[in-house]
Specification:
This protein is of the alpha/beta class. The chain has eleven helices and twelve strands. The chain has helices at about 15-25, 45-50, 65-70, 75-80, 100-110, 125-140, 150-160, 170-175, 220-225, 235-250, 255-265, and strands at about 1-10, 30-35, 55-60, 75, 85-90, 95, 120-125, 140-145, 165, 180-185, 205-210, 230. The strands form two sheets. The protein has a six-stranded mixed β-sheet with strand order 2-1-3-5-6-4. Strands 9-8-7-10-11-12 form a six-stranded parallel β-sheet, with helices on both faces. α6 (about 125-140) links the parallel β7 (about 120-125) and β8. The longest helix has 15 residues, at about 235-250. It is globular and about 55 Å long. The protein binds NADP nicotinamide-adenine-dinucleotide phosphate (NAP). NADP nicotinamide-adenine-dinucleotide phosphate binds next to α5, α6 and α10. NADP nicotinamide-adenine-dinucleotide phosphate (NAP) binds near residues 129, 152 and 240.
Amino acid sequence: MDVYGLLGNPVEHSLSPPMHEAAYEALDYDARYVTFETDPDAVDAALDGAKALGIEGLNVTIPFKETIAERVACDETARRVGAVNTIDFGGDDVTGHNTDVEGVRRALAHHDVALDGATAILVGAGGAGRAVAFALADAGAAVHVANRTTEKAVSLAQDLPAASAHDLDEVPALLSEADLLANATSVGMESDDIPVPASALHEDLAVFDAVYTPLDTRLLSAAEAVGAQTIDGAWMLLYQGVAALELWTDRDPPVADMNRALRAELA
Ligand code: NAP
């Protein structure tokens, strides 16, 4: 049996086990996906232990994505983002990847959102914000990053090929000319708050919300009400998992089964 898992703290509410195990079942693949709640002091021991035990691959979540990026051989995307969410133990080297970026790219592609030449407004410059920003910029969008703590928007914009940094109060004016709004703040998570004024939304926007608890955030409801296209946070979660499964195995991910399991868990 092959073993995969999730390294993080906390990990108890993770949606990755049901999503990946649905894939193993659909593929008739003898594998398990286990969560490993790890003490921050034990990250090196956990990496060595995982390799010694023959674990095939690990996802990485808060608070270890940046630490792991310093410990393993990163691919180019993980190196540029400065964070690893997927470790592959299968080769000679232990390699680190960032499939959150690919997750955003595929989530938007799945919904036919054109990014090349588009104007994108990103609110949020934390971990999710960095992944969204690189996905948008690498696909050819001009990215305007706005964040509550403006210095973090400035720092993120400096790491991107074509980007500018803004205060949150500049967002309504920026949105009037925009094709895409991406929320990567935690505003709306387990609450009815909205990260930008609903009055700034318009029907020519595609609106992506990284928040997935709940799936139907107030931002997405407000976007839908003005006729904008909406993409919920489960799509990013799904496709980062699909991309991880592709890295770890030579199997074709059963995307529909993984999506069904994920959404059943979120319902
Ligand atoms: P994080 O690193 O802690 O960043 C949080 C972000 O939210 C920062 O930009 C922060 O601004 C902003 N923020 C928090 N409270 C705010 C408020 N009251 N007003 C304005 N901005 C506020 O967290 P993260 O890991 O990026 O996660 C952010 C969200 O994305 C969470 O809801 C998480 O569940 C979701 N997420 C989704 C996926 C997915 O696959 N769909 C993946 C990862 C994360 P400051 O910098 O000013 O603090």
